[in-house]
Write a structure and sequence with these properties.
By secondary structure, this protein is α/β, with parallel strands linked by helices. The chain has six helices and 15 strands. The strands form three sheets. Strands 3-6-9-12-14-15 form a six-stranded mixed sheet. The protein has a five-stranded parallel sheet with strand order 1-4-7-10-13. It has a four-stranded parallel sheet with strand order 2-5-8-11. Strand 14 (169-172) and strand 15 form a beta hairpin. Helix 1 (12-26) packs antiparallel against helix 3 (41-57) and helix 3 (41-57) packs antiparallel against helix 4.
Length: 239
């Protein structure tokens, strides 16, 4: 899994400019850099997090947590300063997003509102998810525990993921189940331009199962009617 956490981390300003550019690339509602800078809570939360995370890595504790608290108060986005966030990170709408202390997020990741990257234990150590490059997590989805999502994984809205997910897969449901595995494609375009945001194309396994049952019931009803008609028909008439 390609991750962005190298020793040669770009400067804060460079990262922030990339964050703003990726919003303009992924959100049709964004009309200008000034608009993104001033009224996009996801961008503001990430900007403050990058500052707090730099202090956290230098051994500071209370001040980064205080900055995280202030960011949550202003943006409704709660990112622990210990979380490691990659480049070109986009939190769409921002409201209700929670990212835990040991979470790791790759490059070109998109989270929608209400997403939680949470833990499932009080024990110290790695207890939050790791997201590979190009992952898209739909609104309200919960990814819990030290699970790993491979590059370009899509998580459907309101799903709950508690197991590892292979690269290029689509996850749906509670608990999350892999319903699509996509092959890696060779393309000369940069990853930022290949993000798959077609949430309406995510398959619905429950709906498909119900549809199959309804079709089967219809066929059985037709068979029952045929048998009843055969029994009610006099023998002479059948001959």
């Amino acid at each position: 899994m390609a991750m962005m956490h190298t020793e040669s981390t770009p400067a804060w300003w460079s990262l922030l400019r990339e964050d703003v550019s990726c919003v303009l690339a992924r959100d049709p509602a964004a009309r200008s850099r000034f608009e993104v800078w001033t009224i996009y809570p996801g961008v503001q939360a990430v900007a403050l997090h990058r500052m707090a995370h730099a202090l956290w890595r230098q051994g500071w504790r209370y001040l980064p947590r205080w900055m995280s608290f202030v960011a949550r108060w202003f943006t409704n986005v709660d990112i622990h300063p210990g979380a490691r966030i990659g480049r070109r990170f986009f939190i769409d709408h921002g409201a209700g997003v929670v990212i835990g202390e040991t979470a790791e997020v790759g490059d070109d990741v998109t989270l929608y509102h209400g997403v939680t990257l949470g833990g499932t234990t009080w024990s110290p150590g790695k207890r939050h998810p790791t997201l590979g490059d190009g992952v898209v997590v739909g609104a309200g989805a919960k990814i819990l525990g030290p699970v790993m999502l491979g590059a370009r994984v899509r998580v459907a809205a309101n799903s709950v993921v508690i197991d590892n997910v292979p690269e290029g897969a689509t996850v749906v449901g509670i608990p999350g189940r892999v319903v699509v595995r996509r092959r890696r494609t060779v393309n000369s375009l940069p990853d930022a331009l290949l993000l798959d945001l077609d949430h309406h194309l995510i398959p619905d396994p429950v709906g498909k199962a119900i549809g199959s049952l309804l079709d089967r019931i219809g066929n059985l009803e037709q068979e029952v009617k045929r048998l009843q008609h055969t029994e009610d028909t006099p023998t002479g008439a059948r001959s």
